[in-house]
Structure to design on (126 residues):
């Protein structure tokens, strides 16, 4: 069963965030503006802290928020990973959750410089 769960998680290695973020509406950038970068960064860090502290409800909330924020910016691997980790959490698959949280953090770290670049290009200096 554990192998099936891991296989269901997205493999974002080939995802082109620059191409995805280019088609995001300017309205999204105007509405969320410079707050998007620190919010996403805070959210993933707080999710990791919540897991470390055993605050599963807070972790679930941060994963939901991260999924929504990622969807606004075309970051579908982060959106899908966040959702899948939340499902794993709900099902009590904590070891897989821990493994995947590390992968999610790495993926967010790959995405944030692209977001910052796009915010800067929009004059919003995230």
């Amino acid at each position: 069963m554990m192998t099936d769960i891991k296989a269901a998680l997205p493999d974002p290695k080939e995802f082109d965030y620059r191409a995805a973020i280019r088609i995001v509406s300017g309205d999204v950038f105007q509405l969320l503006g410079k707050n998007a970068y620190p919010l996403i960064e805070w959210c993933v860090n707080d999710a990791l802290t919540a897991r470390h502290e055993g605050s599963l409800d807070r972790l679930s909330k941060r994963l939901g928020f991260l999924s929504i924020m990622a969807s606004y910016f075309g970051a579908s691997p982060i959106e899908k990973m966040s959702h899948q980790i939340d499902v794993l959490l709900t099902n009590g698959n904590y070891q897989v959750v821990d493994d995947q949280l590390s992968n999610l953090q790495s993926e967010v770290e790959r995405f944030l410089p692209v977001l910052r670049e796009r915010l800067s290009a929009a004059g919003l200096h995230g």
